[in-house]
Amino acid sequence: MGHGPQRRGGQGLDAEQEESGNRAIMTLLTGATGEQVDLVLTWRPFPTVDGRAAADDGGAYEVWAARGMVRFRRLLAGDGSLHYEVVEVVGRNPIADDDPLALTTIAAERAAAAAGGFDPDDPARRFIAPEQQSYPFGYERVAQLFDSPNAPDLAVSPRDWCSGSQPGTHGALHVRQARAPLWLSGPGVLVGRHELALRATDIAPTCLAALGFPFVDGADASGRTSSERGVAPDVLLARQDGRVAHELLDSAGASPQPSRLYVFLLDGMHQTELQHQLERDPSSLPHLHRLQQRAAVVAGGSIVNFPSITWPSHTTIVTGSWCGHHGVVNPSYYLRDERRMVSPQGVQMGTEVFASTAVESLYEAFHRQHPGCVTAAIHAPFGRSARHAVLEGRNLCDRATVKSLTAELAADINPRWQHEHASVAGEAMLDTRGLAQVIELFTRTDQPPPDFVYHELALTDGAGHEYGPHGDGLVAALVETDRRIGRVLAVLDDHGLFDDTLFVVTADHGMAPQATELRANPTAHVPAAGLAAEIAEPMIWLRDLAVVVERAPDGRTGRVIVADNDTGIHTGNDTGYHTGYDTGDDTANDTGNDTAKPPFAGAEVVVEHHGDGAPRVLAAGLTDDNGRFGFATPSDVDSCRIGVVVRATGRNPRHLLLDGTRLVLDLRAALYGPQR
Question: Which residues contact 363 (CB under 8 A, 6 or more apart)?
Answer without folding.
Answer: 318, 375, 377, 383, 384, 385, 386, 387, 452, 454
